[in-house]
Amino acid sequence: MLSGKRRFAAPVWSAWLLLNTEIPGFVWAYRFDAVTGAGRPLPPTTPRDDLIVEEGFVWLHLALSDARVPKFLEGLADLPDAARATLTDRDNHVVLASDDGVLHGVFTDIERAFDYETNDIGWFRFAASERLIVTARLHPLRCVEATRLAVDRGLAIHETVGVFAAVVTEFEKVVDALIVEMSDELDRIEDYVFETAPRDERRRLGPVRRTVVRLNRQLRASVALFRRYQRWDEPDPLPTGTVEMAETLADLLGSASQEMQGLQDRARLLHEEIDSKISSETNRHLYILSIMTAFLLPPTLVTGFFGMNTGGLPFAGEHFGTLLAFLLGGLSVWGAWWFLKRVGIL
């Protein structure tokens, strides 16, 4: 029976492969017209050879959660090995490189959740030749999805790098919205911090600072990479429109980076102000505690003295001895106050 199962396993598997013609990890694909720049959706059963077109170009978006994606990419002749490695690698940092006329890299995006809003940083990978751009992600991303919706609404894109530029532009819009949101949050924190009653707002400030620092780090790295391609003078060719795209995106993200840097400096100064106010309040409490200790120490010594229960204690035989001892304790408090006033502590 076992040998019989083995005889039928290979034919069944081969038949399944022939019938299952969907692109591994397929999320969506569009073919863009060379003249109008309009995108037309392609089905997941599109043959791999049809992804390389003579006129216009194709945008293929893949999910890296499918383990078959690396094997599928090996069959795309337009992509060199370095570009395939970029698409399937798991390193998360901003990268922009060019090999054999193919622009490829990793860029920042914002993860997209279906049931709540998130500001978590995500990553999308891309490789763009003249006729094909492949983008890939591990988790759903907000800006890539926004670009797809824009294409569905009629956004015209004439070069493969235009898809990448559209995603980065959507990212800049998200960053602008986050700048406004975090600026408003800093305004509210400042209002609380500078109230008469001091409040510790470091718990609210922490997430804002963390988001600002992370985004600003990615923006600075991205601007530096785009500046490099803006001055491209190497012999390796680039896809059409790359230099112009780099100039536009460098200016766009440079402005956002400056605003984000301003927020980062503002959040840092606000954190220092909170620390200063908390430190001042702590010192005030310690000062009050020290004064109370100074006032209570003399009467404590008086009560301790009269509590020794030894013979010959003053006022032991007096009818109003307790009252006299109480007055002596009060006199010691007045003496402590006079001394502190005299030396300038009060």
UniProtKB/TrEMBL annotation:
Q: Name one Pfam family in it.
A: CorA
Q: Name one GO cellular component term.
A: plasma membrane
Looking up Gene3D superfamilies in the UniProt record yields: CorA soluble domain-like (3.30.460.20), Magnesium transport protein CorA, transmembrane region (1.20.58.340)
- Record protein name field: Transporter
InterPro entries given for it? CorA_cytoplasmic_dom, CorA_TM1_TM2, MgTranspt_CorA/ZnTranspt_ZntB
Q: Where in the cell is it found?
A: Cell membrane
Membrane-spanning ranges: 286-308, 320-340
Instruction: Tell me the keywords, alphabetical order.
Output: Cell inner membrane, Cell membrane, Ion transport, Membrane, Transmembrane, Transmembrane helix, Transport, Zinc
Q: How does it sit in the membrane?
A: Multi-pass membrane protein
Tell me the GO molecular function terms: cobalt ion binding; cobalt ion transmembrane transporter activity; magnesium ion binding; magnesium ion transmembrane transporter activity
Which family does the similarity line name? Belongs to the CorA metal ion transporter (MIT) (TC 1.A.35) family.
| Keyword Ion transport attributed | yes
